[in-house]
């Protein structure tokens, strides 16, 4: 007859497997042996297995509870152990009768009950949370979040100010009262807690510091709310409604940011996050193209800056598809000539280059996309990077690397001083010789096998130049801050720091990834010259665009949201063996080179714009 | 979309998707052209010569083809493979063009200035032009939104 099915816990699997394989049961396991699995064994062996399990559980209880002897499961286990001892004595005397069998079954039952009680008391204990510390942590996080949310509307507006109001004297009383109250609560909780509490175990000074932080944040939040109510009660000073209108770029940026944050809720979207970013920057380029078209071709309407209603949002997005059609018959249309002559933007051939810029950026991104395949869904398909790193195509790789390094030099050297230019050129030469020394690329005059070394000398040679350029840039920066407030020295200094970091990235990137660096610099140059400056975007929009491109370039390098794609070889460039601190720094820099370089470029751009 | 199931054997929307795309575009195109010929929303006052009509028709065909190419280029830039699956990409471009440029061509003719005027702010002067704006924009937005499920693993064999 079939026995009634009984449920077993998932934790019981570990103990049963251990016993079945003859291994000791894991120390932290809280499961019971599933007895029917070993039902075919002799009574003595079954009792032995149950005793092993009980012993392991009681040891775990001993480690976790100081008062383990009072636990009912432990007491039952000790009783069952004694009965087990009696059974063994009877067994060794050679008594093979019914009494032995019945006693054995009774001991089995006792053991099973003891094990069940032990397991449940252990599970109850492991699931005990340190509620007080968790609440304190949650309160701090929620306060910081509220403060950020309240300051966001002002920070993202045209004034771009972010201040935390702490001054009003009315709130000082509240501050002291809150400190006092929190300290009282802390004392009450800590003196009455039975279980371990992380926050109580901190020193009194740290605890008081944390209380003051909580009270200060709460006062900050209340004064921010008060200020918002004040502002909304006052009538608006200048009714410039049209200035606060939303263009398509704003809609896209907001929708894209919210959409990306929401997509982080699904694990499929996190695995393929690169698709989200590629999609967003493609759409961004198309919307930029639409803005350029509208600003260059539709000025005869005399109101390109006014607000557009939702229907017209749709209407102007349609121009992206019709834009290219306009270019071709434009020469035959005299009306367009009139429109362009009244434009205040760049004229002539610059206009056509600026119109073509979003398309060039789209083509660059599409090429980079097929260079490095990331993500899990199509990881098995070979990409262009694989073709290049194949050892049969070393000459193509060498040619590509040489051309990329040359282009990096041309793109970066425009705003550097003469010394930095020479240092940059020598540094890039050093990068190529490093890669030739370790065997990734070949010089055109060597056709046979050359000895492969670690390339330490060449790499250190490049490091010297990197440090030199960064030092020159920092010197210029400090000079402009301290000695003479000269904006051009400041922007030159920042740009030199940036070019030093570009040189470091060129050294650490693998040769097939150098086109990524080239396209990064190319896109930055083109967008600065033809899109951001002419269309006069504000700081918030520029920051978000830099952030989006930085994220996309993180994935263009070949990284993904898993650890398997981290390029560990970058931590060994120029080092003989593993040295921890430089390796950590170099690997981090090589992995996050995309976002980091875009962030530094944002700094350069904003500081040069402020000085304009 | 149910009509082809009667005429062709072994037809299913997912299986023979290329055929379905072709059939869909052709149906929508013929419907559009027939409707415009029947209803004639833009009556031109003067009679045009036959040669003029032929040249207009040829210009329409060229513009339609150019818009297909443009949509194909945009789809490839959004990540479609360049060399493989060319037929599917091109048919998708043709489908998008039938929903957008064919309508414009039927209503406004091969006149770029008219297109700029209709699609700019407050440019729609009649209900036909408003409907043109709405249908074109909604088609393009619909295609844009359709890219969202791509990262999901809906085509994997282990999905239930």
From TrEMBL, chain A:
One of its GO terms (cellular component) is endoplasmic reticulum membrane. Pfam families: PIGO_PIGG (PF19316). InterPro entries: PIGG/GPI7 (IPR039527), PIGG/GPI7_C (IPR045687). Keywords: Membrane, Transferase, Transmembrane, Transmembrane helix. GO terms for biological process: GPI anchor biosynthetic process. The keyword Transmembrane helix applies. Residues 349-607 form the GPI ethanolamine phosphate transferase 2 C-terminal domain. GO terms for molecular function: CP2 mannose-ethanolamine phosphotransferase activity. The chain crosses the membrane at residues 131-150, 170-192, 204-229, 397-413, 419-443, 455-473, 583-606. This is PIGG transferase. It comes from Chaetops frenatus (Rufous rock-jumper).
UniProtKB/TrEMBL annotation, chain B:
Pathway: Glycolipid biosynthesis; glycosylphosphatidylinositol-anchor biosynthesis. GO terms for biological process: GPI anchor biosynthetic process. The gene is Pigf. Keywords: Endoplasmic reticulum, GPI-anchor biosynthesis, Membrane, Transmembrane, Transmembrane helix. This is PIGF protein. GO terms for cellular component: endoplasmic reticulum membrane. The chain crosses the membrane at residues 18-39, 60-83, 89-109, 130-150. It is a multi-pass membrane protein. It is found in: Endoplasmic reticulum membrane.
């Amino acid at each position: 007859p079939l026995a009634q099915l009984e449920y077993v816990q998932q934790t019981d699997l570990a103990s049963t497997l251990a016993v079945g394989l003859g291994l000791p049961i894991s120390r932290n396991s809280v499961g019971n042996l599933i007895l029917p699995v070993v039902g075919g064994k002799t009574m003595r062996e079954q009792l032995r297995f149950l005793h092993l399990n009980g012993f392991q559980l009681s040891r775990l209880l001993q480690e976790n509870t100081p008062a383990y002897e009072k636990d009912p499961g432990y007491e039952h286990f000790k009783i069952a152990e004694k009965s087990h001892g009696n059974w063994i004595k009877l067994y060794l005397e050679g008594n093979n009768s019914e009494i032995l069998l019945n006693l054995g079954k009774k001991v089995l039952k006792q053991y099973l009950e003891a094990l069940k009680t032990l397991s449940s008391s252990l599970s109850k204990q492991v699931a005990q949370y340190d509620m007080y510390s968790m609440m304190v942590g949650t309160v701090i996080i929620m306060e910081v979040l509220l403060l950020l949310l309240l300051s966001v509307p002002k920070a993202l507006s045209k004034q771009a100010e972010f201040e935390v109001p702490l001054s009003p004297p009315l709130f000082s009383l509240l501050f002291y009262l809150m400190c006092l109250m929190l300290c009282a609560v802390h004392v009450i909780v800590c003196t009455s807690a039975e279980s371990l509490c992380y926050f109580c175990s901190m020193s009194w000074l740290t605890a008081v510091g944390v209380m003051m932080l909580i009270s200060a944040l709460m006062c900050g939040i209340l004064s921010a709310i008060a200020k918002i109510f004040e502002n909304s009660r006052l009538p608006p000073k200048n009714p410039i409604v049209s200035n606060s209108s939303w263009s398509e770029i704003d809609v896209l940026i907001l929708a894209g940011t919210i959409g990306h944050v929401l997509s982080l809720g699904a694990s499929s979207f996190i695995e393929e996050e690169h698709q989200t970013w590629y999609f967003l920057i493609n759409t961004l380029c198309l919307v930029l193209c639409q803005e350029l078209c509208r600003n260059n071709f539709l000025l005869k309407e005399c109101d390109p800056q006014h607000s557009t209603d939702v229907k017209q949002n749709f209407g102007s997005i349609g121009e992206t598809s019709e834009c290219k059609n306009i270019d071709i018959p434009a020469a035959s249309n005299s009306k367009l000539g009139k429109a362009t002559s009244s434009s205040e933007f760049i004229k002539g051939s610059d206009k056509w280059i600026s119109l073509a810029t979003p398309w060039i950026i789209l083509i660059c991104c599409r090429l980079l996309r097929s260079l490095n395949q990331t993500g899990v869904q199509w990881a098995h398909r070979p990409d262009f990077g694989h073709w290049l790193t194949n050892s049969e195509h070393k000459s193509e790789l060498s040619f590509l690397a040489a051309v990329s390094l040359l282009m990096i030099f041309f793109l970066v050297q425009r705003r550097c001083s003469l010394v930095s230019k020479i240092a940059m050129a020598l540094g890039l030469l050093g990068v190529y010789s490093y890669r030739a020394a370790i065997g990734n690329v070949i010089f055109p005059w060597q056709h046979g096998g050359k000895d492969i070394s670690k390339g330490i000398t060449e790499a250190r040679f490049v490091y010297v130049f990197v440090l030199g350029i960064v030092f020159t840039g920092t010197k210029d920066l400090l000079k402009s801050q301290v000695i003479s407030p000269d904006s051009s020295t400041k922007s030159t200094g920042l740009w030199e720091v940036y070019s030093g970091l570009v040189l470091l990235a060129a050294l650490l990137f693998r040769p097939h990834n150098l086109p990524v660096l080239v396209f990064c610099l190319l896109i930055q140059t083109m967008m600065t010259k033809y899109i951001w400056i002419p269309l006069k975007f504000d700081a918030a929009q520029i920051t978000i665009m830099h952030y989006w491109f930085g994220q996309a370039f993180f994935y263009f390098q070949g990284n993904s949201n898993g650890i398997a794609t981290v390029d560990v070889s970058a931590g060994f460039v120029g080092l003989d063996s593993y040295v921890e601190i430089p390796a950590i720094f170099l690997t981090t820099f090589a992995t996050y080179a995309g976002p980091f370089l875009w962030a530094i470029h944002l700094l350069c751009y904003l500081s040069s714009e402020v000085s304009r | 979309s149910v009509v082809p199931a009667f005429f062709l054997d072994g037809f299913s929307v997912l299986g023979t998707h290329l055929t379905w795309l072709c059939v869909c575009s052709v149906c929508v195109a013929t419907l559009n052209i027939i409707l415009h010929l029947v209803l004639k929303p833009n009556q031109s006052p003067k009679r045009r010569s036959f040669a003029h009509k032929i040249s207009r028709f040829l210009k329409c065909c060229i513009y339609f083809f150019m818009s297909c190419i443009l949509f194909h280029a945009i789809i490839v830039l959004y990540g479609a493979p360049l060399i493989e699956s060319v037929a599917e990409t091109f048919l998708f471009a043709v489908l998008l063009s039938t929903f957008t440029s064919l309508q414009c061509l039927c209503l406004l003719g091969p006149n770029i200035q008219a297109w700029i005027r209709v699609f700019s702010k407050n440019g729609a002067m009649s209900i036909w032009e408003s409907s043109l704006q709405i249908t074109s924009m909604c088609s393009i937005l619909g295609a844009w939104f359709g890219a969202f499920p791509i990262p999901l693993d809906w085509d994997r064999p282990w999905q239930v």
